[in-house]
C-alpha cells in the first residue's frame, strides 16, 4: 500500500500538534511515510516541531520527520500540503478585532473589516505556498484551511485557476456534530446534508439520516429552543471557550430570521452586529482569549514535552474533529467519492447565483478533485445577502491585485457589518496604517 508524504504549512500553528496526533490516530485510513513542517517563523515552529518529533518517535517511529523554513526542502517529494498559515500572527488578529471596535463596528477574524484586513494579508502568503508546491511537487494537492477562506478561495480561483487547491472549513463539521448529538445520533456521518452559501455564510436546507428520514424538524425544534447549544456539552477540542458557547446559543436568534433553513453560526455577525459590539470588550477580544488560552497551553505543553524528552501524560489532544482533513486526503488518494462540504467555484451549483462565485456546497470528491452537487435555486433573502457578501469578497481580491484603495473602501462599505461610507473609510485608514509591510501598497 502506498504511504504518503505530507507537509504541514504553518508548522508553528496552535492546531499543528492536534492535527499530527489526529494523523497518527488515522494511519490505517491514511498511511504516512513522511511528515514535514514548513513555516516562515523558525523560532515559533521549532517549539511545536521539537515536541511533535518526540510524539512521532513514540507513536510511529517509521515516519520520517523534518521541520524547515526552506521551501525547497519542505515542498519536495510531497503528496499533500495541509495549509493553515496566519499571516501576521495573533498580534495582527488583535488589530483586526480592535480597530473596527474603536468605531463601534464588530471586529472579527473572518467577517467584516477584520476579515477583509486578514484577507489582504493572507492572499500573498497562500499564493506563495501554491507556487512552492507547483515548483517542487507538481502532482501534489493543497488542502487549505488558512483563513479567511472565502477571500483566499476567490484569490486562488482568479489568480491560480489551474492549481490543485481545495479550500475547506471546519465550521459546518462542528455544527453538524452538534446537530447529530442534539437528535441522538452518534456521529455527523450518520447524516446526509444539503447546504449552500459562501464560507462562514451559509444554510442547511435538508438533513436526513442514512435511511432517508427527514431530520430537519427535530433539529429545528432543538435550535428554536437552544440554538446549537447542547444540554450536555460534548467533548471537543476546538470550540469550547465561553465565547463559543455564546455563539452556539446565539444561533437561536439567527435561526428565527429564516426558520425554513438552519444557519451557519457566523451569520450572527451579519444579522446582529450591534449585539456583538455590545457583548465585546474592546480591550480584550477573541485574539487575547486565544493567546491566553490555546496558544499558551499548546506552546507551554510542547516546551514541557521537549524538556521532558517524552510526551507521556501530555494534555495535548487528538483534534478528532479535524479528521475531515483525512477524509479529504483519502478521497483524493483512493478515489472514495466521499460527500463533503467544500468551497468551490459555483458554475451552476447554486443555479440563480454568479457562476464565478466561490460557494460552499456539498461535493463528491475523487482523485480528480471535487464535483459540486447542484443545490438548485435559492430564495430572495439568501440570494440578496450572498450577492452583497460575494461582492465584498471579489472587491477585496481586486483591491489586492490592482493595489486599489478605492475598491477596498467599497468592499468595506458593502459589508453588512459596516454602517456607512465614512466609517468604512475611517476604519480603512487605520487598517492601512496597521498593515504596513503586509498589504500591497494602495493608491
Ligand atoms: P497560528 O498563528 O498559531 O499559526 C499560524 C502559523 O503560520 C504561524 O506559525 C506562522 O508563523 C505561520 N505563517 C504565517 N505566515 C506564513 C507564511 N507566509 N508562510 C509560512 N508560514 C506562515 O494560528 P492558528 O490560530 O493556529 O490558525 C492557523 C490558521 O488556521 C489560521 O488561518 C486560522 O484562521 C485557520 N483555521 C481555519 C479553520 C477553518 O475552518 N478553515 C479552522 C481553524 C483554523
Ligand atoms: C471555526 C472556523 C474557523 C476559525 C475558527 C476560529 O473553526 O471555522 O474558520 O478560524 O473557528 O477559532 P478561534 O478559536 O481561533 O477563535
Ligand atoms: Mn472556517
UniProtKB/TrEMBL annotation:
Residues 195-418 form the Glycosyl hydrolase family 4 C-terminal domain. Binds 1 NAD(+) per subunit. The keyword Disulfide bond does not apply. PROSITE patterns: GLYCOSYL_HYDROL_F4. Mn(2+) binds at residues 169, 200. GO terms for molecular function: hydrolase activity, hydrolyzing O-glycosyl compounds; metal ion binding; oxidoreductase activity, acting on the CH-OH group of donors, NAD or NADP as acceptor. Keywords: Cobalt, Glycosidase, Hydrolase, Iron, Manganese, Metal-binding, NAD, Nickel. CDD domains: GH4_GlvA_pagL_like (cd05298). The record marks 109 as: Increases basicity of active site Tyr. The active site is at residues 170, 266. InterPro entries: GlycHydrolase_4_CS, Glyco_hydro_4, Glyco_hydro_4_C, Lactate_DH/Glyco_Ohase_4_C, NAD(P)-bd_dom_sf. Its cofactor is NAD(+). Substrate binds at residues 93, 147, 286. The keyword Metal-binding applies. GO terms for biological process: carbohydrate metabolic process. SUPFAM superfamilies: LDH C-terminal domain-like, NAD(P)-binding Rossmann-fold domains. Belongs to the glycosyl hydrolase 4 family. This is 6-phospho-alpha-glucosidase. It comes from Enterococcus silesiacus.
Amino acid at each position: 500500500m502506498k504511504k504518503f508524504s505530507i507537509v504541514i504549512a504553518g508548522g508553528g500553528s496552535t492546531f499543528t500538534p492536534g492535527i499530527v496526533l489526529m494523523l497518527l490516530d488515522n494511519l490505517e485510513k491514511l498511511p504516512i511515510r513522511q511528515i514535514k513542517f514548513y513555516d516562515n517563523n523558525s523560532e515559533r515552529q521549532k517549539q511545536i516541531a521539537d515536541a511533535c518529533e518526540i510524539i512521532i518517535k513514540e507513536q510511529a517511529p517509521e515516519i520520517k520527520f523534518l521541520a524547515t523554513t526552506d521551501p525547497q526542502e519542505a515542498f519536495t517529494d510531497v503528496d499533500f500540503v495541509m495549509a493553515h498559515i496566519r499571516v501576521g500572527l495573533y498580534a495582527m488578529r488583535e488589530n483586526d478585532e480592535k480597530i473596527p471596535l474603536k468605531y463601534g463596528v464588530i471586529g472579527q477574524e473572518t467577517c467584516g473589516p477584520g476579515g477583509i484586513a486578514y484577507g489582504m494579508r493572507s492572499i500573498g502568503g497562500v499564493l506563495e505556498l501554491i507556487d512552492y508546491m507547483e515548483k517542487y511537487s507538481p502532482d501534489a494537492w493543497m488542502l487549505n484551511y488558512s483563513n479567511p477562506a472565502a477571500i483566499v478561495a476567490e484569490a486562488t480561483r482568479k489568480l491560480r485557476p489551474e492549481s490543485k487547491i481545495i479550500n475547506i472549513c471546519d465550521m459546518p463539521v462542528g455544527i453538524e456534530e452538534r446537530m447529530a448529538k442534539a437528535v441522538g445520533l452518534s456521529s455527523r456521518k450518520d447524516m446526509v446534508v444539503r447546504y449552500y452559501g459562501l464560507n462562514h455564510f451559509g444554510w442547511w436546507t435538508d438533513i436526513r439520516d442514512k435511511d432517508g428520514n427527514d431530520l430537519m424538524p427535530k433539529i429545528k425544534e432543538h435550535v428554536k429552543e437552544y440554538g446549537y447549544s447542547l444540554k450536555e456539552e460534548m467533548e471537543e477540542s476546538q470550540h469550547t471557550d465561553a465565547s463559543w458557547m455564546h455563539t452556539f446559543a446565539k444561533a437561536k436568534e439567527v435561526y428565527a430570521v429564516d426558520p425554513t433553513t438552519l444557519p451557519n453560526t457566523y451569520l450572527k455577525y451579519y444579522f446582529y452586529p450591534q449585539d456583538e459590539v455590545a457583548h465585546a470588550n474592546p480591550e480584550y477580544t477573541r485574539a487575547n482569549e486565544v493567546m491566553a488560552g490555546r496558544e499558551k497551553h499548546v506552546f507551554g505543553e510542547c516546551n514541557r514535552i521537549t524538556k521532558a524528552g517524552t510526551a507521556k501524560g501530555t494534555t495535548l489532544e487528538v483534534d478528532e474533529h479535524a479528521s475531515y482533513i483525512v477524509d479529504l486526503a483519502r478521497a483524493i488518494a483512493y478515489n472514495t467519492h466521499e460527500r463533503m462540504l467544500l468551497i468551490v467555484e459555483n458554475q451552476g451549483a447554486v443555479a440563480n447565483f454568479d457562476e464565478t462565485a466561490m460557494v460552499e456546497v456539498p461535493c463528491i470528491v475523487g482523485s480528480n478533485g471535487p464535483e459540486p452537487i447542484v443545490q438548485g435555486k435559492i430564495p430572495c433573502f439568501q440570494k440578496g445577502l450572498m450577492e452583497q457578501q460575494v461582492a465584498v469578497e471579489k472587491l477585496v481580491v481586486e483591491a489586492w491585485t490592482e493595489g486599489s484603495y478605492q475598491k477596498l473602501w467599497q468592499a468595506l462599505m458593502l459589508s453588512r457589518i459596516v454602517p456607512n461610507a465614512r466609517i468604512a473609510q475611517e476604519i480603512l485608514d487605520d487598517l492601512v496604517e496597521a498593515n504596513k509591510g503586509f498589504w500591497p501598497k494602495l493608491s
